[in-house]
Specification:
Blueprint: H1 24-38, H2 56-70, H3 76-79, H4 85-95, H5 124-141, E1 143-147, E2 157-161, H6 168-174, H7 178-182, E3 184-189, H8 196-202, E4 207-210, H9 216-228, E5 232-235, H10 253-261, E6 265-271, H11 279-283, E7 288-293, H12 304-316
Parallel strand pairs: 1-7, 2-5, 2-6, 3-4, 3-5
Antiparallel strand pairs: 6-7
Helix pairs in contact: 1-2, 1-4, 5-6, 10-12
C-alpha cells in the first residue's frame, strides 16, 4: 500500500441529508465489514472515532478494507473527519475506483514476504557497552536478581515484558548472551529518533523505527519481517511505562503476529524497577530489581486474545501485590 500524504489531505465533503441514501452499496459493505470485525451492530449515524471507538488495529483493518474494496487510500486521521458511517459511505461512492469483494485481510498478508531490510548489527559493540554500563550503574543502588534465562528458546520469539522504567530494555538486554543480543531487536517510535546521528545509530544497533501515527500497518509489517527472518523482538505490550507501578492493559499487536506466524512468546516480569533513581530509592540501599523470564507460551491453536491474556496473566502472577492492577 502506498503511503498517503501526511498533511494537506482532502477533508471529506459535506453531505446533505437528501443524499444519505445514495450510497447503499458502499454503506452496506461498510456496515457488514464493521459488524463482522467488531461483533456489534452499527448504525449509519455512528462515528468511527467516537461512537464505535476503533482501536489502532481495527483502524488498520478498516483502512485496508476500504482500499482493497473501493480503491480509496485513507490514513487513520482521515477517518476522524467523517461525521458518520453514512458520510464515509457517500465519500466512497463519489471517489471509489472500483468495487470488489476482498476476502484476504492485511493480517493474512503478514505471511507474505515484504521488502524490508532489517537493521544491521554493525555497531553491536556500542549497544553492548551501553547496556552493560546501565547494568553496572543500576547495581550500585539496587540488588538485581535475574531468573529463568533458560526459558529463552533458540530461533524467533517475542520477549514481552511489563514496563516500569526507562531502564527496562537496557537491563533485559544486558543479561542476554552475546548471540541472543545479536539476534534481538527492539523498536523505537519515530518521534524519538530525530536527527541523522540517532537514525544512523538505530539502523546499526538492532532498532526498528516505527511510525505509529501514519504508518501503523507498515510498522507492524516490519516487526513481522524481523521474526520471519528468525530473530527475536523485545516488546512492551503496555505501550508505555507504568505511571503507578501497576500492570496496565496489554495491546495485542504482538499476539496477532504470534498467532499468525506461529511465533512463541517469552513473558518477562520486572518488579522493583518502578521509578529507580528517585529520592526514595536512593535512601533504600537494599532495594531490589527482579527480572524473571517466564516459561514460553506457544501460540499454536490459540487466538490473539488468548495469547495476550496468557502472557499478561503469566506476568501478573509473578509480580508482587503492589505492582498488580486488578483489571
Amino acid at each position: 500500500m502506498k503511503n498517503s500524504p501526511k498533511t494537506d489531505f482532502a477533508k471529506p465533503p459535506t453531505v446533505s441529508s437528501q443524499s444519505l441514501n445514495l450510497a447503499d452499496l458502499e454503506y452496506l459493505a461498510l456496515k457488514n465489514f464493521l459488524e463482522s470485525l467488531l461483533g456489534i451492530s452499527v448504525q449509519s449515524s455512528e462515528q468511527l472515532n467516537k461512537d464505535i471507538l476503533l482501536d489502532s488495529l481495527s483502524k488498520i483493518s478498516v483502512i485496508d478494507f476500504i482500499e482493497k474494496t473501493f480503491g480509496v487510500a485513507l490514513i487513520d486521521k482521515q477517518l476522524a473527519e467523517f461525521s458518520s458511517i453514512q458520510e464515509l459511505a457517500n465519500y466512497l461512492s463519489q471517489h471509489k475506483k472500483f468495487y470488489r469483494k476482498e476476502e484476504i485481510s492485511w493480517i493474512t498478508e503478514l505471511k507474505n514476504k515484504w521488502n524490508f531490510q532489517i537493521p544491521k548489527s554493525s555497531f553491536l559493540f556500542l549497544l553492548k557497552l551501553i547496556v552493560f554500563t546501565v547494568q553496572k550503574a543500576t547495581s550500585i543502588s539496587h540488588t538485581i536478581e535475574v531468573k529463568g534465562l533458560e526459558h529463552i528458546p533458540e530461533g524467533p520469539c517475542f520477549l514481552a515484558s511489563n514496563h516500569q522504567s526507562k531502564l527496562d530494555a537496557f537491563l533485559i538486554l544486558s543479561y542476554l548472551d552475546k548471540q541472543t543480543i545479536r539476534d534481538t531487536y527492539a523498536y523505537a517510535k519515530k518521534q524519538h529518533i530525530k536527527g541523522f546521528l540517532r537514525r544512523y545509530l538505530a539502523s546499526r544497533c538492532n532498532v526498528i523505527v516505527v511510525d505509529l501515527n501514519y504508518e501503523l500497518k507498515e510498522s507492524i509489517q516490519k516487526l513481522a519481517e524481523v521474526v520471519k527472518q528468525g530473530k527475536k523482538v523485545l516488546i512492551f505490550p503496555e505501550g508505555t511505562r507504568s505511571l503507578t507501578g501497576e500492570l496496565g492493559l496489554f495491546k495485542k499487536t504482538y499476539a496477532i503476529l504470534s498467532a499468525e506466524l506461529s511465533i512463541p512468546v517469552v513473558p518477562i516480569a520486572i518488579s522493583g524497577a518502578f521509578n529507580p533513581g528517585s529520592k526514595r530509592d536512593k535512601k533504600d540501599k537494599n532495594s531490589k530489581i527482579t527480572l524473571e523470564f517466564l516459561p514460553v507460551i506457544h501460540s499454536k491453536g490459540l487466538y490473539p486474545d488468548q495469547i495476550n491474556h496468557s502472557v499478561r496473566q503469566s506476568i501478573l502472577n509473578n509480580l508482587p501485590i503492589y505492582s498488580v492492577n486488578a483489571l
